[in-house]
Amino acid sequence: MNLGVFSLSLAVKDLKASHEFYEKLGFKKLDGDDVKWLILENGDTKIGLFQGMFEQNVLAFNPADVRNVQKQLKQSGITFVLEADESTVGPAHAMLLDPDGNPILMDQF
């Protein structure tokens, strides 16, 4: 099963301050609205900065087919807190929690 590109989505208090900090670490803006969220990259590493959108940090994967990944994980006994509608196609997302309650987002663009 290919989970796709991995990134860490950080819940930040001040988007501008966080952006400036991560720029000093060599991250460059890839996408975002500069108000609520930004996607930054440094080589193969991507992080998302999200202000007021998440209560905690989130592990994120971008599979090519989130519905297929969801089916496989459900067959192995994984429970989802948010499921992608398997009767649709195209962009969708699903979310599960690891045993410690850390959210894992599966997000298909």
Explain how this protein is built.
The structure is a single chain. By secondary structure, the protein is an alpha+beta fold. Helices cover 18% and strands 42% of the residues. β3 (37-42) and β4 (45-51) form a beta hairpin. 18% of the residues are buried. It contains two helices and eight strands.
Highlighted features:
2,3-Dihydroxybiphenyl 1,2-Dioxygenase, domain 1, eight-stranded mixed beta sheet, alpha+beta, 109 residues, 8 strands
Number of helices: 2
One letter per element, helices H and strands E, the order comes to EHEEEEHEEE
Overall pLDDT level? 96
Radius of gyration: 15 Å
Gist of the model:
This protein has 109 residues and is of the alpha+beta class.
Record the SSE blueprint.
Elements: E1 5-12, H1 15-24, E2 28-32, E3 37-42, E4 45-51, E5 58-62, H2 66-75, E6 80-82, E7 92-97, E8 103-108
Parallel strand pairs: 1-4, 5-8
Antiparallel strand pairs: 1-5, 2-3, 3-4, 6-7, 7-8
